[in-house]
Amino acid sequence: MAMRLPEPRGPLSEALCRDLATSTSLSATTIGRADRVAAAGAGALTDEDLQISLAVLYELHYRSFEGISEDWEWDPALLGVRAALERRHLAALRGLVGRIEVTEEPIDRQLTALIAADDGPSLSSFMAKQGSLEQWREYLALRSVYHLKEADPHTFAIPRLSGRAKAAMVEIQADEYGGGSAARMHSELFAGLMAALGLDPAYGALWDDAPAAAFASVNTMSLFGLHRRWRGAALGHLTAVEMTSSEPSRRYSAGLRRLGFDERVTVFYDEHVEADAVHEQIASVDMCGSLVEEEPALAADVLFGAACSLAMDGLAAVHLLGAWESGRSGLRGQRTLAA
């Protein structure tokens, strides 16, 4: 079942959602507002109007929305609006991660060094040691924007690969999709975790609660996955996820157990502790190593994608920890999150 269109967060998303729901063509109002948003200055990654609009545009390539014509997916005017927003989003990513140095080292070693140099805040350590039940529910609401479609953004890159890089990515993604078992798909395991903590696990149900930081992260993945130009960045992004999630997953699992939950609830994180430890070498050596060996010019894109993954995790951590430290909710408004 398709999700409903989200609540608008500004002039652009208001006009965009109105056009999608009531028209068969994009209005001049929407195009004009998109041009203004795209031309704005800094702050793209925390711009609620831009990020929800970009998420809506990308969602047309995933499961779309209830009552929306499927003809919108490849509408030329809509793709033009998306491209304009993508340019501002990409500029913000480049500004955030800074210059990426490519060396003569094998790409797996360069990825390891990039990750080792990351000094972003550790949200998993906070959640393991002191995260409250309500903070856990807020964290899961934010992460639901991605985890309920886990693996899908990266999977778009598979047809753009060949040889060992392609086979390695398929090997990783097959595990993400439960190895053929629908009940073991990571998205399903996350939905079960949400339900256990009293959250609505339906796909897209908590979009209206999630802040821009949640959408900036998934929009980055979607951008990389949907553009052949960014196939190297898609693989670098996925590799950073695989190389950095095993130990944090262990901490998240410990945080849930501290609150009294057992393995029936922690299975999502327990699965990642095991799977991602195996995936790390496959991703960095077999997947990225093979890609760069075949196309050396993509090394910079691989590292850029990995750096973006780390930066987006940092953005979400800063948002949540900053809100909680000041006694505020990390979500939008004061909605009831219970299912």
Core attributes:
339 residues, mainly alpha, 15 helices
Give the ordered list of helices and strands: HHHHHHHHHHHHHHH
Query: Into which percent range does the helicity of residues fall?
Result: 55-70%
User: Any low-confidence stretches, pLDDT <50, length ≥5?
Assistant: none
Biggest pleated sheet: none
Q: Given the C-alpha coordinates, what overall shape results?
A: globular
Q: Alpha-carbon distance between the termini?
A: 17 Å
| Secondary-structure-derived class | mainly alpha
**What is the count of DSSP helices, taking H or I runs of 4+ residues?**
15
In total, the number of strands is 0
Which whole number gives the mean pLDDT? 96
Measured on Cα atoms, how large is the radius of gyration?
19 Å
Task: Tell me what portion of residues adopts beta-strand conformation.
Answer: under 5%
Itemize the secondary structure elements and their pairings.
Blueprint: H1 11-22, H2 28-38, H3 48-59, H4 76-97, H5 107-116, H6 123-129, H7 133-147, H8 152-155, H9 163-176, H10 186-196, H11 212-226, H12 231-244, H13 246-258, H14 263-294, H15 299-325
Helix pairs in contact: 1-2, 1-3, 2-4, 3-4, 3-11, 4-15, 5-14, 5-15, 6-13, 7-10, 7-11, 9-14, 10-14, 11-12, 11-15, 12-14, 12-15, 13-14
Description:
The structure is a single chain. The chain is an all-alpha fold and 339 residues long. It is 65% helix and 0% strand. It has 15 helices and no strands. The chain has helices spanning 11-22, 28-38, 48-59, 76-97, 107-116, 123-129, 133-147, 152-155, 163-176, 186-196, 212-226, 231-244, 246-258, 263-294, 299-325. It is globular and about 50 Å long. The two termini are 17 Å apart.
